[in-house]
Design a protein that fits this description.
By secondary structure, this protein is of the alpha/beta class. 43% of the residues lie in helices and 10% in strands. It has eleven helices and eight strands. The strands form two sheets. It has a six-stranded parallel beta sheet with strand order 1-2-3-4-5-6, covered by helices on one side. It has a two-stranded parallel sheet with strand order 7-8. Strand 2, helix 2 and strand 3 form a beta-alpha-beta unit. Helix 3 runs parallel beside helix 4. The longest helix has 19 residues. It is globular and about 45 Å long. It starts with a strand and ends in a 6-residue tail after the last helix. The protein binds pterin-6-yl-methyl-monophosphate (PMM). Pterin-6-yl-methyl-monophosphate (PMM) binds next to strand 1 and strand 5.
């Protein structure tokens, strides 16, 4: 999954794809590099980001969905049911809701009505974790178990709303109300999330915990521009662990990493 952020403040590509034609060209490039899905987002979901007006989000996202869905299947990164509905009317293939259907009470109903698949991410309402230490929530000593149980409940909520079981994808939400150790524990325990029986998306691309891993003691985290090789390493390990997809900014190295993981797992080059 290649990321196409059309926000002014996304940490990882800093609004570089705000212009419509640039955004379409970037999507085309990611498809050429091997992306199977383009994830279009019009509102930064980075923890602490200021929310954009719904009408602004809709105006950024909907025309792009129309243009890009002719190139590849499109997922739409939104927490708003109305934006999701408009995007689905324009042929979006899947809704990516970082709140797992919690931010907008209409989201799961809209997804079900459109018979759309949905990515449900582990999310803690900012009101619930600001009180906790260091911007992380309290996971009771077992972050993997807590995230797994939360995701199982969100999947149940989606099923109750009428979403097709085959269309539910789960995501541990790396970096959302989690510190570096939480993120590594979740990657280490990915099999416990996959054991829930739903496809799992891993979205580690360029995140701060990679920057922290790669810097020396007492140094600032390595800059975003230096985090792509580590992202590709995560991709090969995630693929080997059985992840359904990875969400990445730099598609080419991750597409290579997926091929490497597949050939390694099969013990031969996949028949083409
Ligand atoms: N992270 C971001 C945005 N959207 N969607 C899913 N499903 N999972 C994530 O972890 C996730 C996401 C924030 O990163 P960005 O600013 O690089 O897009």
């Amino acid at each position: 999954m290649g990321v196409l952020n059309v926000t002014a403040d996304s940490f990882s590509d800093g609004g570089r794809h705000l212009a419509f034609s640039d955004a379409v060209a970037h999507a085309r490039r990611m498809v050429a590099e091997g992306a199977d899905l383009i994830d279009i987002g019009g509102e930064s979901t980075r923890p602490g980001a200021i929310r954009v007006e719904e009408s602004d989000e809709e105006q950024r996202v909907v025309p792009l969905v129309r243009a890009v869905s002719g190139l590849a299947p499109v997922s739409v990164d939104t927490m708003r049911a109305r934006v999701a509905a408009r995007a689905l009317e324009e042929n979006a293939a899947i809704i990516n809701d970082v709140s797992g259907g919690l931010a907008d009470p209409d989201m799961l109903r809209v997804v079900a009505e459109h018979r759309s698949p949905v990515i449900l991410m582990h999310w803690v309402s900012p009101d619930d974790y600001r009180a906790g230490a260091g911007g992380r929530a309290d996971y009771g000593g077992d972050v993997v178990g807590a995230v797994r149980d939360h995701l199982a409940r969100r999947a149940d909520a989606a099923l109750e709303a009428g979403v097709d079981a085959a269309g539910i994808v789960l995501d541990p939400g790396l970096g959302f109300a989690k510190n570096a150790d939480d993120n590594w524990a979740l990657l280490h325990g990915l099999d416990r999330l996959i054991a829930l029986g739903f496809p799992v998306l891993v979205a580690a691309s360029r995140k701060r915990f990679l920057g922290s891993l790669l810097s020396g003691e007492g140094e600032e985290p390595r800059a975003v521009s230096g985090r792509d090789p580590a992202t590709a390493a995560i991709t090969s390990l995630a693929a080997a662990a059985g992840a359904w997809a990875v969400r990445v900014h730099d598609v080419a190295p991750s597409a290579d990493a997926v091929r490497v993981a597949a050939a390694w797992a099969d013990g031969r080059v996949e028949a083409r």
